Structure formats: structure tokens, C-alpha cells
Amino acid sequence: MTPEEARAERLADAATFEQDEVVACYGARPPYAPALLEFLPTLATGRTRALDIGCGPGKITGALADHFAEVVALDPSPPMIEAGKSADAGRHDNIVWVEGRAEAYETAAAFDLVTAGSSIHWTDPAALFPKLARWTGLLALLNDNPTFPAPAPPCGHDAWVDFLTLWLERTGRQAPPAWRTPNPDAWSLLGDHGAWIDIIGRRRFAYTHRQSVEDFVISCHSRPSWNRRRMGAEAVAGFDAALDEMMRPFATDGVLELDVVSELTWGVPRRTPLPGSTSD
């Protein structure tokens, strides 16, 4: 795949989060680890303003709003912004909801903390990070799925990878060979974005999430590879039936216990990439 093809695929995948049906499924994703959300505000020395890039339905935004005088919640998807407002239900009057891409956002004010939850990889670092370096001295990147496909759901790793591989192939994609032998100690890669941040620290937060089989299946359709519009009604029906059949025996009263990992990387955004990097 050429760089141009990779960029076109990335933009197409990012656009799936503007689909109402994807946004409706997004709420079924496991939340970030509660301990991570408690730890996050402690990184900032000031509590005046925070910016949440790619805020989605506000899973991080709401946690920040309890600790900062103002939080700007930024997302290019109108349905995501509406979902965030609906989820907050007016509890926080200090959230400013902004529809738009982070690369196009402008402000003259500084932020004590900027966060991006499983969203920084959708951005153009050369356009965004020089702005971030002007706005803040602290960028925190959250990942809700850093070791995917591990930890596997209760069906076990091999069965999970077999299922994912099959359904990726049916949507015209291929599973990475590394999925078969994941390294649980490896940190998630930041790709080209890693050259634009001087990392201060990294931490992982593990927890157990209880979720119905139905919601587990629904959560998969919030992912670009298995969004319902991409798959089509017939494939969706087959996917849902097969996944339900695989998971149901491991549920108690219809509820699964899922091992979940959230990852946090924080540091100082750079105006220019690290010398010698592919972004340089």
C-alpha cells in the first residue's frame, strides 16, 4: 500500500464516525479504566482549561469537566458531538462543544492539558502538533485498546483471532500476522505521531468490565472494519449470529466478564518532529 493509499484508507475509516449507526454503537465500547480517568487530571499543574481532541461521546470530556474550569470538547463528527451533549445531559456547564477537525481549530488561549482518546492517529501531525506546542506543555494520549486483540474475551485468544481474521477477510482486509503471537509487554506504537512528542511517562491500567453479550456484539460495529454500512445487512446478520454463538457459553446470565486494558502516554508536544524521524 502506497502512502497515498494508506492516507485515503485512514480518511475513509475516520469518516465512519460520522455515521449515526456507528455513533449509536460507540457507547457500547468498554469505558476507559476508572483509575486512568482519576489519574489523568493529576498530571496537570493548572486547572483552568483543558482540550479533548476527538472527544467522541465525551467519555474523557466529562471526567475532565469535574476538574477544570473549562473544557473544550472537539470532534469533526456532528453525531458524536450530539451524543456527547446527550450523555452529559447538562451536568457540566463548563464544557464547550465544538464541531470541527483539530487541524482547523484555532484559539489564542492556552490549555493546561490536552487529551486525545484513541483519536490522535486520525490527525495530520504536521498540521496539528505545531499548534499543540503553542497551546500546551502537556499532551496526554489515551488508548482504549492498546494490546488488541489481547486480552482476548473469554472465548480465548486463538478463537478470537480466528473469528477476527475470517470477518476481516470478508470485508476485504487482512489480519496482521502479529495478532497470533502478541507481545503483552509492548507499548502501542504512535506511528508518525511519536516523532512529535517528547514522552514523559507511560502507564497501563487494567480492569474487569462486565457487559452483556448483546452489547459486546454491538460494540464491534463501532469499529471501521465492521461498521454496519460497510458490511451490509446480510454480512451483519451472519457476524452477529456467529459472535453471539461463540460468546454465549462464556456468559453468566447473559453477561461477560472482559479483561480490559487502557493505556496512557503523556509528554510535551513538539513544534517540529524529532531529527532523523520519517516525519523530519
List the helices and strands and how they pair.
Blueprint: H1 3-15, H2 20-26, H3 34-39, E1 49-53, H4 61-65, E2 70-75, H5 78-88, E3 95-99, E4 113-117, H6 125-135, E5 139-143, H7 157-170, E6 197-212, H8 213-220, H9 228-231, H10 233-247, E7 255-269
Parallel strand pairs: 1-2, 1-4, 2-3, 4-5
Antiparallel strand pairs: 5-7, 6-7
Strand adjacency order, main sheet: 3-2-1-4-5-7-6
Give the terminus-to-terminus CA distance.
Answer: 21 Å
Q: Write the element-wise H/E pattern from the N-terminal end onward.
A: HHHEHEHEEHEHEHHHE
Strand segment tally: 7
Helicity, in percent? Answer: 25-40%
Beta-strand percent range? 15-25%
Notes on the structure:
This protein is an alpha/beta fold and 280 residues long. It has helices at residues 3-15, 20-26, 34-39, 61-65, 78-88, 125-135, 157-170, 213-220, 228-231, 233-247; strands at 49-53, 70-75, 95-99, 113-117, 139-143, 197-212, 255-269. Strands 3-2-1-4-5-7-6 form a 7-stranded mixed sheet. α8 packs across α10. The model has no long low-confidence stretch (mean pLDDT 93).
